[in-house]
Amino acid sequence: GPLWISITLVFATAICGNIANYVKDMATMSPNITNTDWHYDYTKVGLAASTIFTYVLAVPVCLWFLFWFRGCTANYSLLETICVYGYSLSIYVPISILWVINIRSFQLILLSIGAILSGSVLVLVFAPVVHSDPSKTIKTSYLILIIIILMHAFLAFAFLEYFF
């Protein structure tokens, strides 16, 4: 599941990002110009793949290690943590398709909706684990949850800025 969602997101982001750039280039082109020499940017596929797969694998591994190191009693396995992160990216597939609409405020609203929905999935899943920390430090618990949300929102913002 998380593998297929990540692969789908890679191609949706790369393809829709190129379509958005094409639409933007055609909209800014003068009507007198007949040469529409536009080329697909293949580097976006590689960048999207490396960004998404690094995020889906590295962040959950670090988070799992942090939970293990702190001795959280309600811990998920590494595979479950990776699955949660992979599934949380599923909202960005339809959002990346809608990001083709080149209205910046609309894109930012979609970014906010996606970050809130996917971030809330992560918070709901990992809140019991964070709160099962034996040290019971409230500041640390909330800091970990805020970092999870911020990293997820930063990924979405990076998608929007680079690909669209």
Question: What does this protein structure show overall?
Answer:
One of its GO terms (molecular function) is small GTPase binding. Residues 1-156 form the Yip1 domain. It is a multi-pass membrane protein. The chain crosses the membrane at residues 6-24, 45-67, 79-101, 108-130, 142-163. It is found in: Golgi apparatus membrane; Membrane. The protein is an all-alpha fold and 164 residues long. It has one domain. The chain contains six helices and no strands. It has helices at 2-28, 43-70, 78-88, 92-98, 104-131, 138-163. It is elongated. The relative contact order is 0.16. The mean pLDDT is 88.
Query: What is the average of the pLDDT values?
Result: 88
Query: What portion of residues is helical?
Result: over 70%
- Shape descriptor reads elongated
Low-pLDDT stretches: none
Helix-and-strand structural type: mainly alpha
Cα separation of the termini? 26 Å
Count of alpha and pi helical runs = 6
How many domains? The number is 1
The number of strands is 0
DSSP strand content: under 5%
Largest sheet: none
State the order of secondary-structure elements, H for helix, E for strand: HHHHHH
Rg result: 19 Å
Protein name: Protein YIPF
Membrane topology: Multi-pass membrane protein
Subcellular location: Golgi apparatus membrane; Membrane
GO molecular function: small GTPase binding
